[in-house]
Design a protein that fits this description.
elongated; mainly alpha; 5 helices
Length: about 120
């Protein structure tokens, strides 16, 4: 029974990674994409720290651009739904809070959740 479970798990993982590659015509390995997503998170954090929060439209525009790029990659990768949904909710919370400290705290939480996605690669 255990070898069958391993075959199904590994086969499913390989299938969805192949499907992702074909869908985007993106031939980069998942680790590279994960690293690119991490870079977007660091850019969002840097923007929050340098501007003191999402107060002005120009600050928010750049932040949202990085967030959108991150979420597009997250949605198009074969990561499980539960961790991805949790990351989506946490990023929405970043936009809701006006306190910069809370925004950075929530973004750190997203970064932690993002690092946990490595085990699915």
């Amino acid at each position: 029974a255990i070898p069958a479970i391993l075959l199904v798990t590994l086969g499913t993982r390989f299938f969805f990674q192949s499907l992702y590659t074909l869908q985007l015509r993106d031939l980069r390995p998942m680790r590279h994409i994960h690293r690119e997503m991490k870079d977007y998170l660091h850019e969002m954090e840097k923007g929050l720290l340098l501007t003191g929060g999402l107060k002005e439209s120009t600050d928010m525009g750049e932040f949202l651009l990085h967030m959108h790029s991150y979420l597009v990659l997250l949605d198009m990768t074969p990561f499980p739904n539960r961790p991805c949904h949790s990351i989506h909710c946490s990023l929405q919370e970043v936009l809701v809070h006006a306190d910069v400290g809370r925004q950075i705290q929530l973004l750190k939480l997203v970064q932690t959740k993002h690092e946990e996605l490595v085990k699915y690669i």
